[in-house]
Specification:
369 residues, alpha/beta, Enolase-like, domain 1, TIM Barrel, 2 domains, 7-stranded parallel β-sheet, 13 strands, 20% strand, binds 2-succinylbenzoate, binds magnesium ion
């Protein structure tokens, strides 16, 4: 397959309510879309970087720069490209996994649309629908938190994830348990907000029977996650620390992880994400699909990934309406805590022309030499 050109496009989707984590407050999602044009089909990918390098070292202006100057030229130099060849062609560029993932996703989508095959089948997916949950940001007070959680439970989500940080951890967890009881599937995500000095404090969460605690310590601090596993009964899940299948194998071997959150952007693409799934399955480690407030483009592809058999825990894949007033694709809707996996060719959805035009803030068309 030859690539005629690649379009980078920024879209701004205001969030229905601000999303606060231990690292930022987001008011709108400034998503970066990659559209790969080939003679046979077009393909779409979404770069999950955010505006500032506060979740990981990547940020969207940086992703645009590395795509334009280094990544896109490596796939539009006139040679034939296949999706499996994208990562090897980009391997001499260090890091920038989110930018690489978006480009690979767009090439993969174009390839699959040409072949008439769905991304779910390509990756080895088996489920036709997957369990989904909702990620709840940090609130100003417990009352506001309980109101928001109550709304999500009425919408039928089967699992609640609370964002935590020092000063907002045991209290919100206790309040949610108090209100909805011990059977509500509940987990927490610290986005690296704790230090090794907090190890003992974090064991206070054990009495609340959480599904997992996600990434309490720094991305590079594998040792503290291993230590927490020794002193706590709450399963330890890694998000930020896992950047590749080799890294996942290493964390498992070092006894640092019970469960892995797989985000295709964080690990350089859907093909590497599927390899992490395989490594975890081989070690009996359950996985689930993380989210980065994706538009319908990223969400469609995440659903395909989450249809693989090792994704046994609910994903951070919520209805379009949980995030945005208007999505750029037909809205995704969770029903009874599940979402349907798209079956059409490629990711199975395309942006709606009018919504895309209305939400676009910038675009650039890049062709080969
Ligand atoms: O750590 O899982 C995270 C959003 C942005 C950056 C990091 C994370 C998140 C979420 C949102 O938790 C999950 C979603 O997309 O619903
Ligand atoms: Mg996380």
């Amino acid at each position: 397959m030859k690539i005629t050109g690649v379009e980078l496009r920024r879209v701004e989707l205001p969030l229905v309510s601000p999303f606060r984590t231990s690292f930022a407050v987001e008011h709108s999602r400034n998503a970066l879309l990659v559209r790969v044009v080939t003679p046979g089909a077009e393909g779409w990918g979404e770069c999950v970087s955010i505006d500032e390098p506060v979740y990981s070292s990547e940020y969207t202006d940086g992703a645009i720069d590395v795509l334009r100057r280094f990544l896109i030229p490596a796939v539009t130099n006139g040679d034939d490209v296949t999706a499996v060849a994208v990562a090897p062609r980009l391997a001499h560029i260090k890091g920038h996994r989110m930018a690489k993932a978006a480009l690979e996703a767009a090439v993969l989508d174009a390839e699959l649309r040409s072949a008439g095959m769905s991304l779910a089948s390509r990756l080895g997916g088996t489920a036709t629908s997957v369990p989904v949950g909702v990620s709840v940001g940090i609130k100003d007070d417990i009352g506001a938190l309980l109101d928001e959680v109550s709304g999500y439970l009425e919408s039928g989500y089967g699992r609640i994830k609370l964002k935590i940080q020092p000063g907002w951890d045991v209290e919100p967890v206790a309040a949610v348990r108090d209100r909805w009881g011990p059977r509500l599937p509940l987990q927490v995500d610290a986005n690296t907000a704790y230090t090794p000095a907090d190890l003992r404090h974090l064991t206070r969460l054990d009495e609340y029977d959480l599904l997992l605690i996600e990434q309490p310590f720094d991305e590079e601090d594998i040792a503290s996650h291993a230590r927490l596993r020794q002193i706590s009964t709450t399963p330890v899940c890694l998000d930020e620390s896992i950047l590749s299948a080799a890294g996942a194998a290493d964390a498992i071997t070092r006894g640092a992880v019970d469960i892995v959150n797989i985000k295709p952007g964080r690990v350089g693409g859907y093909l590497e994400a599927a390899r992490i799934h395989d490594v975890c399955a081989a070690h009996g480690i359950p996985v689930w699909c993380g989210g980065m407030l994706e538009t319908g483009i990223g969400r469609a592809a995440n659903l395909a990934l989450a249809s693989l058999p090792g994704f046994t825990l609910p994903g951070d894949i919520s209805s379009s309406a949980r995030y945005f007033h208007t999505d750029i694709t037909e809205p995704f809707v969770a029903q009874d805590g599940r979402m349907t996996v798209p079956t059409g060719p490629g990711i199975g959805v395309t942006p709606l022309t009018d919504a895309l035009a209305a939400l676009t803030t910038w675009s650039e068309w890049i062709t080969g030499p």
